[in-house]
Write a structure and sequence with these properties.
Layout lengths: L3 E7 L2 E6 L5 E4 L2 H4 L20 E2 L5 H6 L2 H17 L4 E2 L1 H8 L7 E5 L7 H4 L7 E5 L7 H13 L4 E7 L3 H7 L7 H5 L3 H6 L12 H22 L1 H8 L4 E7 L6 E3 L2
Parallel strand pairs: 4-5, 6-7, 6-8, 8-9
Antiparallel strand pairs: 1-2, 2-3, 9-10
Helix pairs in contact: 10-11
Length: 262
């Protein structure tokens, strides 16, 4: 009679390999002789890990209409907390691509810098179709950005305008140093008012002074907010009616945190 050797168990059946070539048999393993069914899981002291829910939907017109500007701001604060704590939501992006192709209903628009180290959708844990992102070096506001914001809010229904600067911004530092280079010169002229607005600052007023650069970056965000309200009648009216909120914040490249300005 051939001797057999148990090699491994697969879903309740143990494969037995004969010591003599050409003979393959099956046998029951000890665990299944104890009464465990093929479809049951083996009991352990470790609890089963819950599969995270996957978001497949996109923002709808109904949700966009129901949420308030203050609640939208809260969602951005919560999103950054999840990002920092490694608890980001799981999304089926291909499903969101398909659904958003039929229309979009973003609840916010961000004015942010082109810096590659601060992708707003990621640091705020947002999905496809959740927000507009107007990116420009130095996150300043000009006529083109104003038109984009008016489209996002008046036409598309966004409830929050968030102007986001970031630490160690190259455009801010270049403006502090009065850099002259091609079209960059004209671009930096939009940030110069923030440099000039920082008064009575001790020390060197250049990119070598990190505290000065940080002060200019914050002032640049505040000037952008004031310019939106001053130069866009459409947005100013929406803000006065409580339909839209404008807020500012600063992203820290060193740790991923966002400091929201009151």
């Amino acid at each position: 009679m051939a001797k057999i050797k148990i090699t491994h168990c697969v879903r309740g059946a143990c494969l037995a390999v004969c010591l003599f070539p050409g003979l393959l048999l099956s046998s029951s393993c000890d665990s299944h002789r104890r009464g465990e069914s093929a479809g049951s899981s083996i009991a352990t002291d470790t609890p089963a890990k819950k599969t995270p829910d996957i978001i497949t939907e996109v923002t709808t017109a109904e949700f966009q209409d129901s949420i308030t500007p203050l609640e939208v701001l809260g969602k951005f604060k919560a999103g950054n907390r999840r990002f920092l704590e490694g608890r980001m939501l799981h999304r089926n992006y291909l499903s969101q691509v398909d659904l958003s192709s039929k229309g979009q209903h973003p609840y916010a628009v961000i004015v942010s810098c082109i810096d590659s180290r601060k992708p707003a959708e990621i640091v705020f844990d947002k999905g496809i179709g959740d927000m507009f992102n107007a990116r420009i070096a130095g996150n300043f506001v000009n006529t083109d950005i104003l038109g984009s914001l008016e489209f996002a809010c008046k036409v598309s229904g966004a409830k929050l305008i968030l102007v986001m600067g970031h630490s160690d911004c190259g455009a801010i530092k270049s403006a502090c140093d009065r850099v002259k280079l091609g079209n960059i010169t004209a671009m930096l002229a939009n940030i110069t008012p923030a440099v000039d607005a920082v008064k009575g600052f001790p020390g060197n007023r250049s990119s070598k002074n990190q505290e000065f650069v940080a002060a200019v970056a914050k002032q640049n965000v505040l000037i952008a907010i004031a310019k939106i309200l001053k130069e866009s009648v459409i947005i100013r009216e929406m803000v006065s009616k409580g339909q839209v909120m404008i807020a500012g914040c600063m992203y820290d490249l060193r740790n991923g945190s966002v400091d929201f300005y009151p």
